[in-house]
């Protein structure tokens, strides 16, 4: 007997809450694996994560879930119930396409691959990772066939992170960005002789770096009673099923200020989004960011638009200088602002400037497409990586640790994710511009170390909604326009025009 | 169709492995809750743990598990298969008696009660904990009725931790201990004027305490690649489904050396047991200690028999003194040995000496029995606690924080657990004596800071077997005798006779 919609909905919510709890538990196990787990725990943890993922998948794909989804019908548009059913249906439909055994195998193989990636990167030895990557890529290609696609298997993987995104539209976007920045990058390259970044290198005590990062995160509005910061090989933000426990991680370099500082601002941006989601969405599919692109817009906004602005540093630079008087004593605000915005082609994506960053992403996008369609083999990947680096950025990495091994993503089975970084980067300016139009006082507040108006606008227009609206819809509601790259190119032009004396 | 035993057994093992993975995941979530989780995570974590416990319970009690248990038949005695089926059947039978909803409610209520206990203890305000305790006790009494018992509902709860233990036998054991120690305690009380413990109070930097504890744990044989130590409000040892990740926690008092030091040795003892279990038992019901009493025998053995012996301190005291030259400069080995063995009636169980410790346990045992049978109400518990303290130890705690609120157990829904502390204390000497009989060189090795022979004997005779043998059987195999209190009373007589000049 099919239950009535008003009976089906609470039952459906209960099942989805169980799925959410299992996924949150996986999150805790994964956080622990990347922060505190001793080496001896690897094998057991792989089994535990595989089991949790299998059970979550079985629960989501079960006949009972399908029956309740059918019975729930089509709730009133624009209601939370409508969003819940729509999102649950999408997750269910996607999940039924993947066999449980494949899901478990993906989980197990990636759990084993991650420590292999850490060893491979530490020794700059691609051969340690390669067999894992072979296996992981095979499983991803198998997943793409199960998930289905119209034009290209890559889109089946991409759609998991950015619903509705298309390979062709991304190619257009990357072309627009390449063309729009080519002139600026040429100008910047003419300044290659200047060592603008010098002030960021020196002796920076890790504990003091950590303290300063926490001061900034607190000023942005990060709530430490609903989060914490730990150390991990790769910085990340993770939430455990709601807005009540949203954690960030970072890593420190005692000789270089930028990596930990900007990673902290970046992950704080992600965390502010998660902490701002309506808590009534906890344990439902509406919890979490609208898409990874929208998520990345928040991390980029706080890291770059705020964290590399003159307004921000007008307030914070005197404080930073007081913490590191030896290293920064002879650097004034203008020199420091130039340093954190120094642009030049470089090897490492997470350390790249705003001007060249999207070329790093374009490279990964092109390689991923080739790996997934099979026109590039795992064995040939390091060579292909180095060739693309030469083509896009005019340089060859000094060893695979600073090349193909620099990111954890592929070892985690994450293909189709990288483009969301550029989607987010582009959206960050579009959203910030809209906030600025509504509240022209924002830059003045930033100069006083205040961010409440900016955060308030983001909370109201982006954060609180969680996944309720589709990404394009959310952006249009917030900014009055569909997603577009124009504002980002204008922002780059204004900023780097001034910094590098371009017309 | 009923499968043949040789087909049923692998299927049964697979299901039990899923149960073990869910329980291991609960373990990680519980460890995190007690070490690093921010306050905002409490509500979500309660839901997650309730869901994991419910799923584990459902899997263990399902018709499919019952069918496979029936089909598995009676494997060859003394084989791992026999132990697996026997233990799985016991867990299944016990679990089918508890409704899933009750299991989930117990999990949820205890997850909420624990932070309440922390607040209650911090403010010495029993009223903060009382409503939680009411709820938890009701659920435990309900559980006892479901589990069933012969003579007394308390035995239904006790049996979960110490299979086969009986209330009447415990009463006899506590009486034997009370009578056997009464004279010694009177003699010791005559020394009340001496401040033997003075050397343990002073200024002891927390980080240095932590380092010294780690040095000792390493010397005992704790494997840091399969474990770690963190801080928690209540010290504990936890393993995540096998011998590959066994963690300990402790807490530090910068003005008092004993609590962290002996808690570390104690939890290390538990951890050595878990790390020593045959790794092929991971993800099976044979993993883990034979009983909580046997587990406690290992913690007590390393904490007390080793960690308070003259042999141990002959090696380690000069090292400790070098670390804390200011605090310990004027204390020689004999004075320090007297200090760590100072005996006197006191308020806090975890800080009690070997002579009076079992009276603390007897008090809890008597109160638990009364609470469970309903002859004592939660409202009257603080008064009853204080009355028992007066009766057994001749003192009244200075506030509930140092009285009824000192232990987390009841807030965790753990009733029937305390007696295992005394069972373990008694067994620790019986097992140590057997090791000594086989290897008379052990005290000499301890004087050189070497523990390999002792650990080797425990590994061979106790640790590696996990739960394979029933507790009494294991003790008899290891020592040639059934469990008995005699050796423990002789040990106390020898030790305190010498320390306090008794005949």
Please provide a brief summary of the model.
With 503 residues, chain A is mostly helical.
Written overview of the protein:
The structure is a homodimer of 503-residue chains. Chain A has 21 helices and three strands. With 503 residues, the first copy, chain A, is mainly alpha-helical. Chain A folds into two domains: 5-158; 167-499, Neurolysin, domain 3, CATH 1.10.1370. The longest helix of chain A has 31 residues, at 5-35. The radius of gyration of chain A is 23 Å and the shape is globular. Chain A binds chain B through residues 17-18, 21-22, 24-25, 28-29, 31-32, 36-45, 47-48, 50-52, 55, 223-228, 230, 240-242, 244-245, 247, 282-283, and chain B through 17-18, 21-22, 24-25, 28-29, 31-32, 36-45, 47-48, 50-52, 55, 223-228, 230, 240-242, 244-245, 247, 282-283.
Largest two-chain interface: A-B, 41 and 41 residues
Mean pLDDT of chain A: 95
Sheet with most strands of chain A: 3 strands, mixed
> Approximately how much helix is present in the residues of chain A?
55-70%
Strand content of chain A: under 5%
Main attributes?
Neurolysin, domain 3; 21 helices; 3-stranded mixed sheet; mainly alpha; 2 domains; 503 residues; 63% helix; homodimer
What is the fold's blueprint, element by element?
The structure is a homodimer of 503-residue chains.
Chain A: H1 5-35, H2 42-61, H3 63-72, H4 80-96, H5 100-123, H6 126-147, H7 153-158, H8 167-189, H9 206-220, E1 229-231, E2 237-239, E3 246-250, H10 258-275, H11 292-306, H12 310-323, H13 325-328, H14 333-340, H15 357-373, H16 381-393, H17 419-438, H18 442-447, H19 452-461, H20 471-479, H21 486-499
Parallel strand pairs in A: 1-3
Antiparallel strand pairs in A: 2-3
């Amino acid at each position: 007997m099919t239950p009535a919609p008003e009976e089906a909905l609470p039952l459906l919510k209960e099942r989805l809450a169980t799925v959410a709890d299992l996924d949150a538990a996986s999150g805790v196990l994964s956080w622990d694996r990347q922060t505190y787990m001793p080496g001896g725990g690897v094998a057991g943890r792989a089994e535990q994560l595989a089991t949790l993922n299998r059970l979550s998948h079985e629960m989501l794909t079960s006949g009972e879930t399908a029956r309740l989804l059918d019975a729930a019908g089509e709730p009133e548009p624009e209601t939370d119930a409508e969003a819940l059913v729509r999102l649950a249906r999408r997750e269910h439909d996607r999940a039924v396409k993947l066999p449980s055994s494949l899901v478990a195998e993906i989980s197990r193989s990636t759990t084993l691959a991650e420590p292999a990636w850490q060893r491979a990167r530490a020794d700059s030895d691609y051969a340690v990772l390669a067999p894992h990557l072979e296996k992981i890529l095979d499983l991803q290609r198998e997943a793409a066939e199960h998930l289905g696609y119209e034009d290209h298997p890559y889109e089946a993987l991409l759609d998991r992170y950015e619903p509705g995104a298309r390979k062709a539209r991304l190619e257009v976007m990357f072309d627009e960005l390449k063309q729009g920045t080519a002139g600026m990058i040429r100008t910047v390259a003419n300044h290659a002789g200047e060592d603008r970044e010098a002030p960021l290198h020196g002796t920076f005590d890790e504990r003091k770096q950590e303290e300063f990062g926490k001061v900034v995160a607190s000023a942005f509005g990060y709530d430490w009673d609903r989060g914490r910061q730990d150390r991990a090989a790769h910085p990340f933000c993770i939430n455990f099923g709601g807005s009540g426990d949203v954690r960030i991680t970072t890593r420190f370099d005692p000789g270089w200020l930028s990596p930990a500082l900007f990673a902290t601002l970046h992950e704080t941006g992600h965390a502010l989004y998660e902490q701002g989601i309506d808590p009534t969405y906890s344990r439902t599919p509406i919890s979490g960011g609208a898409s990874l692109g929208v998520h990345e817009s928040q991390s980029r906004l706080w890291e770059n638009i705020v964290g590399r602005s003159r307004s921000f540093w007008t307030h914070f630079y005197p404080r930073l200088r007081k913490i590191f008087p030896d290293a920064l004593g002879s650097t004034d605000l203008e020199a420091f602002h130039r340093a954190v915005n120094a642009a030049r082609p470089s090897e490492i994506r997470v350390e790249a400037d705003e001007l060249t960053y999207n070329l790093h992403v374009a490279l990964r996008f092109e390689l991923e497409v080739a790996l997934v369609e099979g026109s590039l083999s795992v064995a040939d990947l390091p060579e292909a990586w180095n060739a693309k680096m030469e083509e896009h950025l005019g340089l060859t990495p000094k060893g695979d640790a600073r090349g193909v091994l620099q990111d954890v993503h592929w070892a985690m089975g994450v293909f189709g994710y990288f483009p969301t970084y550029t989607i987010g980067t582009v959206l960050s300016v579009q959203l910030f511009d809209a906030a600025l139009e509504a509240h022209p006082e924002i830059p003045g507040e930033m100069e006083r170390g205040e961010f409440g108006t900016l955060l308030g606008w983001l909370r109201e227009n982006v954060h609180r909604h969680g996944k309720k609206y589709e990404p394009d819809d959310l952006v249009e509601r917030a900014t009055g326009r569909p997603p577009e790259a124009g504002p980002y190119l204008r922002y780059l032009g204004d900023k780097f025009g001034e910094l590098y004396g371009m017309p």
